[in-house]
């Protein structure tokens, strides 16, 4: 393999830059040329492709977002769009592609692989909702952003003796909510993977109040309901008032944590290794701190699971 391409696609995640840097440097280390494809699959169709050098990825390891930009591209979901992308790859002599993103991105990588173009997927999303890896690039940073915000909210919650509901991202996965809840000692955590009774949440609020607690924090994953909806339900059921904070896109930005930079560096380099070995249609991941790779089709058909023991623990610790 003499020339490879790299793109980032779907929602951006902190650490994507560290992954790009790792792909570029590792490839050049092995005397392989690297081409950066801007705006994900849209840039692939449009031929928005440029050669990257060692210096192209200097001073980005600490930056959030993605130097190659990202986009959602409906056209690439069509056969015609994919063929246009392949045309561009051929034009530039690119023999293999590394795609950093979530499951939609892997779907695109799968389609290209089926059409004879070897692709490797690197999981980059703050949601941590990809099977076959313990962590995705961006999850740790987003989690720390949430913790930082909740710590601040706690101060005001205590001063005013209030209940705060924090709505966090995660799409259909509860990982961010669960980890944030455990890390911040939330009274209640609502995640899509577990059914939490409203009465239980209200009981916890009342018990806390009776023993003189000055504040209560409830974390709700966006996959369950909005923070506003939960506040309304609690008010209607128990007449308890709460304040809602929606952290929104602040969770996606910021300088990547040390863990995300290391994870991205390891996964990006491993993806290059796989292309060199002649592998295709794989997704790289980390399991029990070991680099692994899986058939991308299996990953697309599998379901992400969350450690419900952690959820039970959070309940035990917030009695
Ligand atoms: P996130 O988890 O952050 O949303 P994602 O990679 O799942 O990331 P999507 O918007 O679902 O984000 O997908 C990114 C891009 O991948 C799409 O805009 C599209 O270009 C491509 N893609 C998604 N599904 C397919 C498909 N079925 N066939 C080909 N390409 C696809």
Short description:
The protein is α/β, with parallel strands linked by helices.
Content-based structural category = alpha/beta
- Series of secondary-structure elements, N-terminal to C-terminal: EHEHEHEHEHEHEHEHEHEEHH
Q: What general outline do the C-alpha atoms trace?
A: elongated
Note the beta-strand portion: 15-25%
**Total count of domains:** 2
Largest sheet: 7 strands, mixed
In DSSP terms (H or I, runs of 4 or more residues), the helix count works out at 11
Low-confidence stretches: none
Widest sheet: strand ordering: 3-2-1-4-5-10-11
**How many angstroms separate the termini?**
58 Å
Q: What percent of the residues sit in helical stretches (DSSP H or I)?
A: 40-55%
Q: Predict the CATH topology of the largest domain.
A: Rossmann fold
List of distinct ligands in this structure = adenosine-5'-triphosphate
Number of strands: 11
The CATH architecture name of the largest domain reads: 3-Layer(aba) Sandwich
Pathway: Carbohydrate degradation; glycolysis; D-glyceraldehyde 3-phosphate and glycerone phosphate from D-glucose: step 3/4
Pfam families: PFK (PF00365)
Protein name: ATP-dependent 6-phosphofructokinase
GO molecular function: 6-phosphofructokinase activity; AMP binding; ATP binding; fructose-6-phosphate binding; identical protein binding; metal ion binding; monosaccharide binding
């Amino acid at each position: 393999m003499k020339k490879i391409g790299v793109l980032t696609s779907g929602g951006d995640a902190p650490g994507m830059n560290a992954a790009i840097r790792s792909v570029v440097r590792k490839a050049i280390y092995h005397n392989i040329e690297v081409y950066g494809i801007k705006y994900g699959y849209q840039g692939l169709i449009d031929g928005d492709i440029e050669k990257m050098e060692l210096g192209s990825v200097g001073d980005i390891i600490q930056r959030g977002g993605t130097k190659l930009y990202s986009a959602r591209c409906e056209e690439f979901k069509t056969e015609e769009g994919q063929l246009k992308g392949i045309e561009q790859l051929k034009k530039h002599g690119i023999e293999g592609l590394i795609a950093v993103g979530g499951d939609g991105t892997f779907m695109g990588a799968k389609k290209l692989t089926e059409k004879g173009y070897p692709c490797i997927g690197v999981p980059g999303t703050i949601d941590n909702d990809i099977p076959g890896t313990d962590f995705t690039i961006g999850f740790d940073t987003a989690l720390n952003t949430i913790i930082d915000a909740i710590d601040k909210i706690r101060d005001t919650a205590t001063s005013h003796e209030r209940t705060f509901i924090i709505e966090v991202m995660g799409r259909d996965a509860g990982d961010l909510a669960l980890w944030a809840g455990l890390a911040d000692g939330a009274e209640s955590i609502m995640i899509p993977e577990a059914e939490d009774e409203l009465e239980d949440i209200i009981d916890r609020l009342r018990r806390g109040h009776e023993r003189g607690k000055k504040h209560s924090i409830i974390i709700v994953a966006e996959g369950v309901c909005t923070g506003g909806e939960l506040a309304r339900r609690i008010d209607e059921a128990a007449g308890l008032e709460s304040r809602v904070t929606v952290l929104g896109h602040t969770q996606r930005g910021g300088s990547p944590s040390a863990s995300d930079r290391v994870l991205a560096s390891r996964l990006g380099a491993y993806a290059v290794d796989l292309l060199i070995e002649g592998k295709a249609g794989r997704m790289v991941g980390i399991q029990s701190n070991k680099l692994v790779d899986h058939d991308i089709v299996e990953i697309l058909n599998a379901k992400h699971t969350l450690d419900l023991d952690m959820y039970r623990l959070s309940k035990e610790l917030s009695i």
